[in-house]
Amino acid sequence: MSKKGEVTLKWECSACNELHDWEDDAKQCCQPEVSECWVCPACEQAHSDKKDAEHCCPDAELAVTCPSCLREHDLDELSFHAVRIAGHCTECNPMFTVDQQMAIQDLHYLNTGKSRNLFA
């Protein structure tokens, strides 16, 4: 009869499957490295330098003022596109043609990735 070795307790890294003698070593084995970055508000591209992000899309229009009510609307709002297409925002005048409504909603989706109904 052969003598078997004693079983030992080890911890396995779930990313690389390396065995460790200590639980904390296994937890810290393949932690992803985190780095700081700056994001351009227009195209959402990440940059390692703040100035690079600030100058990434200098011609991008990130806000617009409604000529009727003088409210400021950011790029991620439906009213931003409403002012550009219809000449007024959804706050001061919610009346749009069907073509305008579809264009506003389509541009909003293309810029934000979020589908929103103009009258919801």
Automatic annotation (TrEMBL):
This is Uncharacterized protein. It comes from Pseudomonas brenneri. The lineage of its organism: Bacteria, Pseudomonadati, Pseudomonadota, Gammaproteobacteria, Pseudomonadales.
